[in-house]
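Students often ask why we bother encoding 3D structure as a string. The short answer is that it lets us treat folding as translation between two languages. Here is a chain of 100 residues written in the first language.
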Amino acid sequence: MNKIREKLAPVTKVCKLIFGYGIMVVLFAGGLTFFGYLAALIIGGETATAMCTVIYKKIVPVIVYASTVLILFGLITMYMAGEKALIPDKKKASKEEGEK
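And here it is in the second language, the structure alphabet:
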């Protein structure tokens, strides 16, 4: 199994890079929606309603779908690399308890 992971190491590095930049873009886009809502609050009226509708119905679903796909991609990448981020490590936990 380790030989397979060694062969996949260059692929997992590229996948981690794609995952990192993808999540960064999605988070940045989510932050920009805040400024869209803030601008709509300042403008007010029918224009603000139209802005909020566009943000809510067109932009937010794209951000949600993109983040879901990227998270799945990141989990698959972690699995290919042999990382176990979602499982507690007993050795690490026992060392931390000894330090306290």
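Translate back mentally: The chain has three helices and no strands. Keep this in mind for the problem set.
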